[in-house]
Amino acid sequence: YAVIWWWSSWLSLLSPDGSLGHFTILFFFFPKKIFSLDLGGISAIVLNGYDAVKECLVHQSEIFADRPSLPLFKKLTNMGGKCLLNSKYGRGWTEHRKLAVNTFRIFGYGQRSFEHKISEESIFFLDAIDTYKGRPFDLKHLITNAVSNITNLIIFGERFTYEDTEFQHMIEIFSENIELAASASVFLYNAFPWIGILPFGKHQQLFKNAAEVYDFLHELIERVSENRKPQSPRHFVDAYLDEMDCNENDPESTYSRENLIFSVGELIIAGTETTTNVLRWAVLFMALYPNIQGQVQKEIDLVIGPNKMPALEEKCKMPYTEAVLHEVLRFCNIAPLGIFHATSKDTVVRGYSIPEGTTVITNLYSVHFDEKYWSNPEVFFPERFLDSNGQFVKKDAFVPFSLGRRHCLGEQLARMEMFLFFTSLLQRFHLCFPHGVVPDLKPRLGMTLQPQPYLICAERR
Ligand code: HEM
Questions:
Q1: pTM of the model
Q2: What are phi and psi of 392, to 5 degrees?
Q3: Domains delineated in the chain
């Protein structure tokens, strides 16, 4: 596996547009829809293409809903992860997922005023961009703050200013961990956990960062729950503490202070790292293709106008903008391998026996480049999401949020954020590269694919 990884790194360097990477290699070297790998003693299968992913995650959804017991996650959660994203499929996951889905609805997209709160955040975001007065700058920091503030409103009931260095530091080291989690050294740690005793290596940096994030979140949770009135929740943290109270006599309950901290951490990073990177890629592609940017702006001017804040009800009247955002999600593959799954029982797929406890790698990248479902998948072409009348059309093989029981629980929130931030940005600014120089388009590899750091000029339209 290490050899494949190493070779694929070289091939990704050699490809002219930088788009060939580890994930296409997994697809091309192994054109089979399903094949097995031995990750240093961890037996795994890779699912390639839409049919295989759907067959497992949808048709056998319960069997494929587990997560692997990787030493990394065991070490991070100290207890095998009884919370949300990294949790095994069982009571802990069911309780935490249900609570998160409900609170995201109650304090987030279920509230009419929530859209207004995203628009308010957009104004802070746009005003901060305005301070650069068209000079080149890296947008990453501002997008990260704006996006994480939307999740912060649901989880803590408050936003953090763009000058809050403590919160920003926490997000930075957390997102560094997303990159470290896909590093060779951490792969080795998963295969040979005894290397954890070595005092150096990227796994040690990862554990140090995780401990710092844990302490920060612990204090933050204490602060936002200080004046809490039981059974009158104001945000996710209150709602979680209420559940803990209700279940205090149940010895099997999975609600605990520790799991609260892990859940909050998982929700913040899952919501921030992904949506931020989609918007960073979207900005990059708008500067790369000024004609596409112009067409989006034409639609914005026609449907919303130059001064009114964009509203979600306008989305259905803006098929081209929708198509562009969908093409960014397809082409850029923010979570190229999703999050690893595992089988909770022995099963058979396409005649292959797959034992219980097998790690399952869902190659979502291969689904978005599956030639059975996409013509010329290697071309960035938003029109593939439009019919002959220019209306938006959904595509089956569009799976950036994955499928089945573990599919992304923040999809609805992410879609709201992407539309409102993207349209308000292009309504106010024209985006271009400084001196027209196109930056490196090769993605930076981690659990997510993000663009290399780049500078952009945002000029008032
Ligand atoms: C464009 C933005 C986003 C993308 C592309 C994305 C993508 C994904 C993917 C591929 C998975 C893995 C699903 C699987 O295991 O099969 C996932 C899981 C998850 N996502 Fe997202 N996500 C996004 C935004 C968000 C947001 C905004 C939140 C919440 C604030 C969120 C929370 C989660 C959680 C908690 C899980 C784990 C679900 C579980 O294990 O039950 N995501 N996401």
A1: 0.91
A2: -70, 135
A3: 2-460 (1.10.630.10)
